[in-house]
Design a protein that fits this description.
Radius of gyration of chain B: 21 Å
Strand content of chain A: 15-25%
Bound molecules: magnesium ion, zinc ion
Radius of gyration of chain A: 30 Å
Order of helices and strands of chain B: HHHEEHEHEHEEHEHHEHHHHEHHEEHH
Number of helices of chain B: 17
Shape of chain A: elongated
Helix content of chain A: 25-40%
Structural class of chain B: alpha/beta
Largest sheet of chain A: 10 strands, mixed
Structural class of chain A: alpha+beta
Number of strands of chain B: 11
Number of helices of chain A: 15
Number of strands of chain A: 16
Distance between the termini of chain B: 22 Å
Shape of chain B: globular
Strand order of the largest sheet of chain B: 1-3-2-4-6-5-10-11-9-7-8
Helix content of chain B: 25-40%
Oligomer: heterotrimer
Strand content of chain B: 5-15%
Chain lengths: 479, 481, 99
């Protein structure tokens, strides 16, 4: 069978660093590329006798995320200890949640959410090679600045069925989290980290295949390429009559190869048990209300509103709503002229702006003020300038800002039309200059209009309105 | 002067300092000198001078110095929890309870020897050698707070603090003929206490008499924002004054005092005499039932080791403490460090706890133990609906010979038979000396509902007054070898 | 009765290195203790809620306000292998996966 004959089944496990001021269980400030180990204390270093105390804002953010994803917030949840030894884990256990997570269920887009829980991040382990104190042995150095950073872990149901779906959905999740303001969700900085569980099955089958876990797909492209490569690898295995083994794989974006992580000789046994140093979390009506009150309009809802209330097409609505900065600019433009401008026309012009400023730039930071963008769109809608002229004006606005009216006047881009515009003479000139084309048109060959219209446009530097030009040509040819 | 000074209880000494009859610096120096000559191996560290500013006169504790169990973190001072894996470790911070005592006017006299990570009932599990019992140097002082108990009994410290997880304050207090109290869980902050079993550990006083015990406790309790499980104590700890036990209902749980506990005849005899005395003081005494108490030991020896197996995972040779590190890999560094740093009993409990939590066994062991814990708390709730206090011998035996139980862990664990049910239920209990059996002290335990400390201290005080126990022999043998 | 293999497995989980005769002694000692403990499994505990905390308190939360961290030299003061402002350790085997 070819890879196309298999249906991929993909679930994501996402770790989000919360944008609190301090760590999950201690008062150390979060670190942003500081010198190693300058944000540590007895608690996050796991010194003897130190005890954790939960960060209220981290819990608040956790509940906000749960509500935004439509989860049930557990009225009674509990922290557990997840026991394993690793140098980046100061206490020999991670404080996490186990059988009673903060939130359960829910959905975002077409993907169901399995659970959302709170935990603490591990420290950074930096390999320093054979330069350590002990001659000839391979050393690493632990930096505990990141240790104890508040994390929310989001686990989806296996509802994704292609690498690009996975990438697109992660984008929606990131926009949603950014809209919530609970994290800077920057994959390159590790504040948004994604693992993927991948299995495949023959199309039509409803039994799940053996899944593998792809670790730390730390960019949207890696997620896409990694999942794609794994789907192909599994398909090749099955086609060769071999089995997929359940294992954890690391994707090398350079070679595009997937290599198994050597799991330690003894099987994992995390020996979870209730964290005796922390009391249970109870989501009180006050806490739920505070979280609800803090929720902004979420991208999916915003797209729906654009569609319903402003008449945008579904895909144009999402194109704007799923990039908060575009949607914000869009609404600023509509607001800038008392609602006179046509929302659909504005929406259709936004891609022109994005094309000129680049998709990484927030239009709010461009030279083009919402009000000048609005008057540009109005000039075109009112046919006072042609679409081509409109594009020229936009380029000028992006380059140096200013007012569309002024630019049109300065560059003489006003549409050429009406009695005294001399357009009739230019059309006559065109007919004289292109006799063959004129003949064909008389003979009923509409296609032959092309050269004539082109001539007029050249003469008017694109300022004439295409429709009017055709009308004039036909009438002068007596048709 | 020294002799009279030693005969003063801490409460009397504090009063003398406040009234100006006694110089706090002199008092400190007398005890410092005795502690420095310690021949019982009760101290692991002794202050080398009177603290710069013993703010004595102004304070209620009057500059009367306190001996502190090794496992309390004290800034810049060795805090080793009796373990070689922490040999020489000096923490960058001080435990809340120790700080509160210093603020109350009780400066740090020294750190006391203990069973490693508080795991033991004889103090023979210390990485720094066993502590001797001042009543008989061939015998153990009990544990795990054996150094604190021996230091107070021998007059090397006016008073001391320890921790109690399954009896680690009450049992050594009993075996050394002093008063020891385990407060309600949450009454004293655990911040800075090197953890053994987090859901059971409580700090408490070890003192010469009930009044000293009350005064010290008054300055230990209180909510601490650094300990999520600490509670505000609902009332101030009062200094006891009761002269009798009129109207007090005492319950005697057959499950704990009977044959099942293997209570030694001499201890049982002393217990019965003490109960009779209580009746003469006006108490009513009746048998009561604690049906699950006989299973407390089993639940305890699953829950405590399970929590300990995680609490002791941080001793990995990475950030502090011992490291054994050839040029071998990470895994070897971990296992060699931990195997070299931990003593036999600690390894045994880590193994037991790891096993009890491991996949496939959690429900059968740890999970079951948590349910037994619920039943034990229910038993006490039921008992306290009919009785003010439950009374038992503190320990089934008096101080035993050094080495007597070393090669039989289970026999050693049975030391805690009468003391483990209370911490499992989180309730307070006090042990007072109730006389001698074959020349060795016997302890009498009273346990009450959560936050009944004041009533417990009153009852213990009334009993203490009419028992009239004389601890001076141990103080005389005290410092001198 | 715990088998040597079980004891070996548990020791590995706990990162303890036991000599041959330590293994044997541990096996018999733990078995003896477990035999005693086993009794609680005969109790009827159906429908009994487990107790992991003896206090009723819930929601002990800390305001998200910074507190001073330790100076670097204090944080590293007890480190067995301080290097490059951090805690030196033997490198985990390539690709070793903790979680
Ligand atoms: Mg996680
Ligand atoms: Zn910290």
């Amino acid at each position: 069978m070819s890879v196309a004959d298999y249906e991929p089944v993909i679930g994501l496990e996402i770790h989000v660093q919360l944008g609190t001021r301090t760590k999950m269980f201690c008062g150390c400030e979060l670190s942003f590329g500081d010198e190693p180990n300058v944000h540590t204390c007895a608690v996050c270093l796991g010194l003897p006798g130190a005890l954790p105390v939960t960060n209220a804002r981290a819990v608040h953010y956790g509940i906000m995320i749960g509500l935004a994803l439509g989860c049930d917030v557990a009225e009674h949840s509990q922290f557990h200890r997840k026991n394993y030894f690793y140098p980046d884990l100061s206490k020999g256990y991670q404080i996490s949640q186990y059988d009673v997570p903060l939130c359960r269920g829910g959905r975002l887009g077409d993907v169901r959410i399995h659970r959302v829980h709170l935990e603490e991040d591990a420290a950074k382990l930096v390999h320093v090679g054979r330069s350590g104190r002990i001659h000839g042995s391979d050393r690493s150095v632990v930096d505990f600045n990141r240790g104890g950073t508040p994390l929310v872990e989001i686990v989806t149901e296996p509802d994704l069925h292609s690498a690009s779906d996975a990438r697109e959905w992660l984008g929606l999740l990131r926009t949603t989290l950014r809209a919530l303001g609970v994290s800077d969700v920057d994959m390159s900085q590790g504040s948004l980290r994604c693992d993927a569980n991948v299995s495949i099955r023959p199309r039509g089958s409803d039994v799940l295949g053996t899944k593998t876990e792809l670790k730390n797909m730390n960019s949207f492209r890696f997620l896409h390429d990694g999942v794609l490569a794994e789907i192909q690898r599994q398909a090749d295995l099955l086609d060769a009559g071999e089995q997929v083994v359940q294992e954890t794989l690391h994707f090398d974006p350079v070679s595009g190869r997937l290599t198994p992580l050597r799991s330690k000789e003894e099987a994992h046994d995390y020996r979870y048990f209730p964290e005796p140093d922390l009391v249970p979390l109870v989501a009180t009506p006050e806490m739920l209300e505070a979280a609800r009150a803090a929720l902004p309009e979420l991208p999916a809802a915003r797209a729906g509103r654009f569609e319903r209330e402003l008449g945008l097409s579904a895909e144009r609505a999402r194109e704007l709503a799923f990039r908060a900065e575009l949607a914000d600019y869009y609404e600023a433009v509509l607001g800038s002229d008392g609602g006179a401008v046509d929302p659909v026309a504005v929406a259709n012009w936004i891609p022109q702006l994005v094309e000129r400023i680049g998709s990484e730039t927030d239009p709010a930071n461009s030279q083009v003020s919402p009000s000048s963008f609005a008057s540009l769109v109005e000039l075109v809608s009112a046919r006072r300038i042609s679409r081509d002229a409109g594009r020229q004006v936009l380029s000028t606005l992006v380059a140096e800002g200013g007012e569309p009216e002024a630019i049109v006047a300065r560059e003489g881009l006003a549409a050429v039309s009406g009695e005294d515009s001399g357009l009739a003479e230019i059309v006559a000139g065109a007919i004289a200059a292109e006799p063959d084309a004129a003949e064909k048109v008389r003979g009923g060959n509409e296609k032959a209009l092309g050269p004539l219209v082109g001539h007029v446009m050249r003469e008017t530097k694109g300022r004439a309105d295409g429709g009017e030009v055709r009308r004039l040509i036909l009438s002068q040819l007596g048709l | 002067m020294t002799a009279e000074m030693l005969e003063l209880t801490a409460t009397q000494a504090a009063a003398a300092v406040r009234s100006g009859e006694l110089d706090a610096g002199e008092l400190f120096e007398v005890y410092r000198a005795r502690a420095a000559e310690d021949s019982l191996n009760a101290f692991t560290w002794v202050a080398d001078q009177v603290p710069a500013s013993p703010k004595a006169a102004g304070t209620e504790l009057g500059g009367v110095p306190v001996a502190v169990k090794d496992l309390f973190c004290t800034e810049g001072v060795p805090s080793q929890a009796g373990s070689r894996i922490l040999e020489g470790y000096r923490p960058p911070y001080t435990a809340t309870v120790v700080q509160k005592l210093a603020d109350g006017g009780a400066p740090l006299l020294g750190k006391t020897n203990q069973d490693e990570f508080a795991m033991g009932s004889s103090n023979e599990n210390s990485g720094f050698g066993p502590v001797l019992n001042p009543w008989d140097r061939t015998r153990v002082p009990g544990g795990s707070s054996g150094g604190s108990a021996a230091a107070v009994a021998a007059g090397m410290a006016p008073w001391a603090i320890g921790t109690d997880t399954g009896g680690s304050i009450r049992q050594p207090a009993a075996l050394c003929g002093i008063v020891g109290m385990k407060p309600t869980y949450g009454a004293c902050s655990r911040f800075g206490m090197i953890a053994f079993a987090s859901s059971l550990d409580q700090a408490g006083p070890l003192a010469r008499d009930v009044s000293d015990c009350a005064l010290l406790l008054r300055h230990m309790v209180g909510h601490d924002r650094r300990d999520s499980t600490s509670l505000e104590f609902p009332e101030q700890i009062a200094l006891p004054s009761a002269g009798d036990l009129k109207g007090i209902r005492l319950g005697v749980p057959e499950e704990l005092v009977g044959a099942e506990g293997g209570v030694d005849p001499g201890v049982r005899k002393n217990f019965d005499e003490t109960v009779a005395l209580a009746e003469r003081l006006g108490a009513t005494v009746e048998p009561c039932r604690l049906p699950h108490a006989p299973h407390a030991l089993s639940a305890y020896y699953l829950i405590a080791p399970a929590e300990a197996s995680a609490n002791l995972a941080r001793f990995d040779g990475v950030r502090y403490g011992l490291r054994v590190d050839g040029s071998a890999g990470l895994g070897e560094m971990y296992s060699q460090t931990r195997s070299a740093g931990f003593g036999a009993e600690v390894k045994r409990r880590i193994m037991l706890g790891t096993y009890a939590l491991s996949s496939g066994y959690y429900d059968a062991y740890y999970g079951t133990a948590l349910k037994v814990r619920t039943k034990i708390a229910d038993d006490f709730r039921e008992a306290f609906s009919r009785f003010d206090f439950v009374v038992t011998p503190t320990s089934p035996w008096t101080a035993f010979e050094l080495g007597a139980k070393l090669d039989d862990p289970l026999a050693m664990y049975l030391n805690d038979f009468c003391t483990v049910p209370m911490p499992l239920a989180g309730i307070p209990a006090i042990s007072i000396p109730s006389g001698l059996s074959d020349g060795l002290p016997v302890g009498f335990q009273l346990a009450g509902p959560a936050f009944s400390e004041n009533r417990l201290l009153e009852a213990a005080f009334a009993l203490e007054q009419s028992i009239g126990f004389d601890g001076s022999p141990a103080r005389r043998s005290g410092g001198e070898a | 009765m715990l088998s040597r293999e079980q004891v070996q497995h548990v020791a590995r989980l706990a990162r303890l290195e036991l000599t041959e005769e330590e293994l044997d002694r541990m096996a018999s000692e733990l078995s003896k203790v477990l035999d005693h403990i086993e009794k609680i499994r005969e109790l009827d505990l159906d429908g009994v809620e487990p107790t992991s905390h003896v206090i009723e308190v819930v929601n002990v939360l800390r305001p998200d306000e910074p507190e001073p961290s330790l100076p670097l030299e204090v944080a590293l003061a007890s480190a067995p292998e301080p290097v490059a402002g951090g805690f030196g350790v033997p490198s985990p085997g390539a690709g070793a996966d903790p979680s």
